[in-house]
Amino acid sequence: MDGTTTTARQISEVENLIKQFYEPGPGGDKKQLNDQLQQIQLSQDGWRLADELMLSKELNVRFYAALTFTVKLNNDGPRFDAETAQAVHSRLIYWFVRGAQFGEGIIVMRKLCSALVTYFIRSPVPWHRPIQELAIGLSNFEAIQGVGSPHRATPVFAGALEALPDQEMTALLWFAEILAEDVSRLPVKQQAYARHHANMLASLEDMSAVLQWALGPEAEQTLKEQALPAYASWVNYAQDIQLDVEGLRPLRAFVRQVSDCLTDEALAPEAMAILRDRLDCYSDFFLPEAMEHLASIVNDHIRPRLQRALANQDADSYLLVQFIVAFGCANIQQIVEDPNHELGSRAIVKILMDVLTIDGIPGDSDDLAIHTIEFWNTYIEFINDTVYSLDPDEQQPPWVAYAKSILNQTVGLLWNKLWIPPASTSKSWGDQEHDAFKEFRLDSTDLMLSIFAFLGKDMLHQLVSFALQSLQIKKWRGVEASLFALNTLSDNVLEDGATEEAIEALFRSDLFVQVADFNQTISSQTRRTAIDTLGSYGQYIERHPEFLPDTVRFLFASLEMGGLANAAAKSIDSLCSTCRTNLTHEVPGFLTQYEKFLESPTNDPYTKQKIIGGIASIIQALTPESAKAEPLLALLANIETDVAAAKEHASVGETEMTELIGVSALECLTCVGKGLQVPDDVPIDVYDEDEQNLSEGSFWHTEEGHAIQQRIIGCFSVLQVVGTYSEAIDAACQVLRSGFAETQPGPFVLPPAVTVNFVQQCSLNTPQLESVLGTASMLITSSSRRGFKLSDEDATALYSSVRGFAQTLGQSTNDPTVASECIGMLTRLMPSYTHILFEHITEALLDFTLSAIDATETFPKRSACEFWTKVIKPQTEATSEDSKQRIAQVMASFGPKLVFTLVQQIGGKANRSDLDILCEPLKALLLHQSGTQVWMQQALSDDRFHGQRLDMEGRAKFLRHLLSARSDGRVVKDAVKTFWAACRGTVVSFS
């Protein structure tokens, strides 16, 4: 290797350092020792020193020597010449064979294996058949030592394997295992590692020969223990490189031997892990005959073991359940379609159902139930795929009746597992147990959704029956489990009217009367789930208003209970919104209840907002419009009280209470605005539309209607004390937006000047300024949709505000989100307000939009591209001649700048994901601007052009391609992407 001499003193010093490093306790400064040892490892005589240290009697010293080989190979290996590589190769094999034959321990031997694998990877001289060479070396140590006859025949590989004792075969298996693990980390598609993978594939046959001995019927158990992980490593490697079916043949041939290991309790865990991985991710790895053999072992050995383990609560039941689940999922077609199969399809289903019957709570004393969910998901998925792919007149398969029976039983077993734990149990739980139980419930109900698609109303009847039976004997945890499952199914139930009648018995029972009786000892979780049921089935209650009284009384009673208030408020909001037309006569009572609630300790911002929003939903359903005035004023009075309170707290410097109450007031106002919106599903009488507009909308144009709107606008005065808080600005924007969606006059359809004034009062330091600008853009858009225009005064004010924000911002990169919204509003001003935009537009503002295209952030780039596309395209007939002339002047002045900016971007400066955005103004230019060709020629030949890797010929070819395809947007996009790649150097040239 190298020619330096290692003295005895050097060896002694290194041995002393190693002993200090590995000795128990402080052992000196470990970091300093490690640094010294690392310097020695990387030194020129590190090779020879490691060679000498391998003869030490100290285990730690020999381990360090083996480690040094690996370090030196990683550092020096790529620079080996052929002679050095051969010398290193020979010495490594010598120490490996010597260690294997002289009984070296596993720690040193595995580190020597790592060194050999590092040589395989790092040496520039290929090592073609490493497993074969090591096997031959193990059987002919004299030749490796150089003491044998040079003419002595080298034993053939098969003969070498036959001659190896278990100790040496074990070392060979260690090497093979580490070889597959390490090479699997090398990228398959990189040319630098192609030869390594080629050598591995050539060695697959050698590995197969080793496994024939190590997993053969004559092999000892201890040898099989080492063979199984080696086999697993090679199978994983083969999968990582996506070896084809034929290439996998040598490895697939050993499935039967690995399966046989399942009958040996010492070998079973490792064999089970190997087979489970294949069953989980690549069941086609198993040949049909191998799967049948595995099925017989599962039926004859694994299933009985699991039954015993479940009965005795053995620890290995966990692995057994996971294995049977994997086996069941891999063979799901047979299990579903042939439940009476001789190898136990019915038995697999039965044992996995038995797992769900064991005592214990999932996530706590039962860790098994959650693992069965995967199987049942696969089971029902196969059934649904099969059943729903049948033609309407096609007969159902014969196994359907049995599958329904199994799934009905499974629903019952899952329901039993959904029961919340007793308080005495859950109070001792930590986060892990709570999260695990919650995960099981969610997974179980997701599974029930899939089962419901197959069983339909039979499953509903079953769950309702469980609830009513539990209610009758006051098993409240059973009631809660039923309601929890029914809540998950609500959307599907309500979509299918045929199944809806199944839940009638639940609502006709005295369930909600009993849970509303707070003198009964019922857990808060049960009441919360019952509250959620009312929110989930609001549409059903809407169609059956006879159930409303009991449900409403229960919800308002629950508001007074601390642990139920939030859930109750949420369901009140949902129920009021859904059943608004059936509750209009209850408005006075609701307002009274709300006033009472405001005095209760459970009054907090969330509950208050939900309830006031729910009441507003009912007010919306009142007719005529004048009937809404009195109850709406009552709600506004409560909000005004909060506004006044916030100002009072601000006056005495109580900032925390100012923010809490002030923001809550605006958020309550938002909820009222949303509640008063006309629902999307309200029918419109197209014949009476004009008459309705006059009669219904006229109230909000009266003095009384205007007075209510002024009260709403007056609530914005709270921004004087909370206008520096993001939540307040966002809530104010939501209030304004709540009127934009309306097509008829209403209390929150405020004059445009309100929004305009709001924008004018903002500065660049206003929090959530992007939300403010977005709201102004929505005003412009909604005005056009509702068929009226903003006044020139309002439109000019919005433009002036945007221009001021952009001027203060300077560059779009200083705040990309605000910049994007500024440019977006300019775009919205076209075409209706083009005359205002281009009468006042400045060069600085146009430069601002160009800088946004040139920036790296996507949102301002997208907005600016949209703006210029709209400018370039022909204007509408409504656009005045003066405006058209002004736009032409802008294009004549800014066209070259725009084209240069776009060319810079598509010339490699932009991200690839932005190319589609940039193509839009480019396509508009090609179609509608006659000067585009000249501008592009100038941009492509400019010395500042970003894509200098592309020569002038390629640029000219690109321009010709664009000009010939200007009317074909798809061709333009493809050309731009190729041009971008050529400028980036990822393709040779533009073609």
TrEMBL record:
Keyword tRNA processing: no
Protein's UniProt keywords contain Protein transport: yes
Key words of the record: Nucleus, Protein transport, Transport
Gene Ontology BP, a term: protein import into nucleus
Listed SUPFAM superfamilies: ARM repeat
Assigned GO CC terms: cytoplasm; nucleus
Coiled coil start-end: none
Domain of life of the native organism: Eukaryota
InterPro entries cross-referenced by the UniProt entry: ARM-like, ARM-type_fold, Importin_beta-like_NTR, TPR_TNPO3_IPO13_3rd
Subcellular location: Nucleus
Matching PANTHER family: IMPORTIN-13 (PTHR12363:SF33), TRANSPORTIN 3 AND IMPORTIN 13 (PTHR12363)
Stated family: Belongs to the importin beta family.
Record protein name field: Member of the karyopherin-beta
Species this chain originates from: Extremus antarcticus
Taxonomic lineage of the native organism: Eukaryota, Fungi, Dikarya, Ascomycota, Pezizomycotina
